[in-house]
Amino acid sequence: MKKRLKFRDDGTFVIVQFSDVEFLDEFDYDPETPKYDSETRALMERIIEAEKPDLIVFAGDVIASNRARDPIQSFRQAVDVAEMSCIPWAAVFGNHDSEGEVPRKTMHELQLQHEYCVAEPDPEGVNGAGNFVVTVAGKNEDTAAALYFVDSGDYSSIGDRVGGYDWIRRDQIDWYVGKSRELTRRIDDQPLPALAFFHIPLPEYNDVWDFHVCYGHRYDSCCSTPAINSGMFAAMVEMGDVMGTFVGHDHGNDFWGTLHGIRLCYGRSTRYVSYVDGVRHDLLPTGARVIRLKEGERRFDTWIRQNDGTVVVEQPEHRPEGRKVE
């Protein structure tokens, strides 16, 4: 039986978000590279020990499947750090998770086999793999918060008309709205405090950076969002439950900003290599984003734990600069 998530006695609930760990078979593609998998695992172990989270979230690109000889084994190795720590965990999938021979549906079924994974089977008739919601119980065992996990896909399936990355589909949005309404009815018709996790950022991530005050870095020239805005952000605004969204994908970005009452947050790339606009850089130390919920409050605290053990609470302010028209 899966462990139920619950707020601590002090009313807090702590989540560690690992982004883009991209495990693969060491030295399979370049014998000159360091052992990134083992170093990334050691980093995750240090962060888990320091933060002692109640939940670990792998925010997509858990493996680099097209470079791994055995994607299934690579996935097991990636999440083993959570399993060995006996801490509940869940994963959403990114574009690199399904570039190899193993479909993302199989990857989701694989995570469900793990003892400490709190993910749920996919709802029938909904696009993608890994769409589920888990709830967090309060001190009275009532449902006190919700965590949505949504599959943001990999690449556009209509590349002859629209290229680039995939987008969250309409049936997924309908599924989210239905779940949100169901949880709202349980809680005296008040939206349940919620967070949402997916891999590829929504188009609104560019909007918040370009036109609103943000905190952190966008070393990539833009946020690598889909070309199609399918309306997921609008649905979350309308439902009024999601307080923050958390993504990975762009290794050079770690900022957050608030748009229409929702904090749009990047994680921090966890792997010991990062690329900005396709070029290898070391602009940001690797690490993880940490999120702390407080029972009964519609807010959360968040900070970044870096690979040297330092904690970044106050990220640099970015003033909006507008957007260049190309």
TrEMBL record:
Superkingdom classification of source: Bacteria
Domain (Calcineurin-like phosphoesterase) ranges: 15-215
Region forming the signal peptide: none
PANTHER family (alphabetical): PHOSPHATASE DCR2-RELATED-RELATED
Annotated protein name in UniProt: Metallophosphoesterase
Species of the source: Paenibacillus phytorum
Lineage: Bacteria, Bacillati, Bacillota, Bacilli, Bacillales
